[in-house]
Amino acid sequence: MKSLSITIFLLFCGFSFGQQQQINAIDNPIDYVNPLMGTDSKPSMSNGNVYPAIAMPWGMNFWTPQSGKMGDGWAYVYDADKLRGFKQTHQPSPWMNDYGQFAIMPVTGKLVFNEDERASWFSHKSEIVKPHYYSVYLADHDVTTEITPTERTARFRFTFPETDSSYVVIDALDKGSYIKILPEENKVIGYTTKNSGGVPKNFKNYFVIEFDKPFANTHTFNGGNLSGDMEAEADHVGAVIGFKTNKGEIVNARVASSFISHEQAALNLNEIGAKDFDALKAEGRKIWNKELNRIKVEGGSIDQFRTFYSCLYRSLLFPRKFFEYDKDGNVVHYSPYNGKVLPGYMFTDTGFWDTFRSLFPFLNLMYPELNNQMQEGLANAYKESGWLPEWASPGLRNVMVGNNSASVVADAYLKNKNAKYDIETLYEAVIHGANNAGPLTAVGRAGASYYKELGYVPYDVDINENAARTLEYAYDDFAIYQLAKALGKPKKEIKLYKKRSLNYKKLFDPETKLMRGKNKNGDFMAPFNPFKWGDAFTEGNSWHYTWSVFHDIQGLMDLMGGKEAFAAQLDEVFSLPPVFDESYYGGVIHEIREMQIANMGQYAHGNQPIQHMIYLYDFAGQPWKAQYWIRETMDRMYRPTSDGYCGDEDNGQTSAWYVFSAMGFYPVCPATDEYVVGTPLFKKMTLSLQNGKEVTINAPTNDHENKYIQKMTFNGKEYSKNYVSHQELMKGATIDFEMGTAPNKKRGTAKEDAPYSLSNE
Predict the structure, then answer these.
(1) For the whole model, what pTM was predicted?
(2) Cis before residue 667, ω within 30 degrees of 0?
(3) Handedness of CA 566, 567, 570, 576 (dihedral sign)
(4) Residues near 26 by beta carbon (within 8 Å), at least 6 away in sequence
(5) Average pLDDT in the 295-315 region?
(6) Range list of β-strands (E), 53-152
(7) In the structure, what pLDDT confidence band is assigned to residue 21 with cuts at 50, 70 and 90?
(8) Local structure of 215: helix, strand or coil
(9) What is the pLDDT of residue 15?
(10) Distance between CA atoms of 220 and 577, rounded to whole angstroms?
């Protein structure tokens, strides 16, 4: 017994400390994905603020079990013990909420349809959650529900008990819905109009549900009233389909939807075709494995594998496809901007303030062909609305700051100049957005006239978060400058945007060595509290936003007094206590609380403004500090568990940070050719690029302790630079890292080793 106890203890230690238990290559990365990572969240504390998305990569429709009430942005939370249904969802975030949603729920016994009355207890112990497959046992109804999706459809499989009172509730939800039962076809059709904004007046999500068993009885409901009618249209309608079932009897349902019409929804059912549930499930598993296997990792702990592939899964969901295929196979879309059905691509459900930083650069590296379609979709959005969407869900939404569509457009073109899409229309769009205030505060540039006249958005002209806007506008002008050069635009135009990209200097306060709001008369706003969240900044404070000079770190370094002073200011971010002033918000927002509890000083990795900051040590000739803090963040702030993120996941951005960082480099400045070197996480990683080339990243001595780069070679040649080139990677490359437990303070310290800065042009 004693030896057995020791063995168990040693095994426990191996599992407790991920760095001690290494695994090698795997064939089925989908088995390491946990869609529940980040679901243990609530408004006051985000550990991801995500739901388990049962979906295909970038699918038009996702499915999720629904624990929250109708209209609750927190549709599924890990600590819930009841499910109200299984919802088709298009929600990009709980803060944006959902649109075009409807729910399906099996019940037995008493005929109930109200979401509270039909709810059933469930347990995670009887729940299987995979990207392509979901299964759960509903205890109150003695029914097992299974779901497997395609991009625009899904199959449901219900396993019922023996009863003459088996039902399936189809809830089209409130705010305007329609339902019709077609018993001779074992079919239910309907539509939902429920949304959270950003839709034209004629918006509908049309659905069709086909069962493989005749209906024993049928009902529709209108609000709280049940009737025998076959059709209903009102604020809140639905249907209840009844069956008589034997013990263990399986009832299948095929579900499809369309933003165009019921006829198009029926056409979308062709994605299922004749495939039964198991065949569709196997196909979904194959699709996910194919995409996840495009990045193969070897040599890491099982938790690192789980975290990596869970983050990669989240990086492959948004922006979602918002287009369909007509009867002739042509790409068409319902426009969320003007309500028309038009030819061409459309994507939606992403906020560029979050995702320009690493999610879109990730797509440019690994999925340039898909991103070309996304760029076509952006050109269509501009043609249909007159603006590029900064936050689309599904149309224009009035959220966040900046004009970061310029970065998304420029980075895509600069990294794939041979792409065949309408770049001239997109250039027109970014110029229009850069010089005009839009119909919403978050579209175009709020304060554009002030910015063009003064070089900044003033603090005292009733435009909130003005310093954040100024800093992001300056970077966005840099992206336009880069794009204008590549397109051969007039020299005067190129010069203008280069000049405007230096506007960040106007907000630098030499006294505090921080960015600070400035009044219209040129005086800095006062009093100034660098720990005050919001006010002149967006979801952060001056310590977070001071580093938002992605394109000219050398210029920022010069303002701070040189490399040593700059590095010392970076150090202070981590050494300061996590104090804060929340007075602008009138309470502690979740982003503040997440910084406070992280025990990393003022470093707030749970939100986007500062996520690139760690890599800035490379510009100051101290890359070993970047290596230390990158690994600290990866080890401490990410886990493959329900509380696995350290803030909002935000449409793949926070996940893509992890994916890039695990590669050993990160896109500090999109719209340049460079990735800044960090520290690789695994012993080996192989990237399969869409052009058929491979990038192999070797770090055979890598482990938890060996986090510091001792030596780096690129294609066999010793390499001291603190950056790697996108164009060189696209040719295929082999990067070798020699890792060690102590910093190498000689490598990457020369001036010429620093990554790109505009001031060094």
Answers:
(1) 0.96
(2) no
(3) negative
(4) 32, 305
(5) 98
(6) 62-66, 82-83, 85-89, 102-108, 120-121, 127-130, 133-138, 143-149
(7) confident
(8) coil
(9) 40
(10) 59
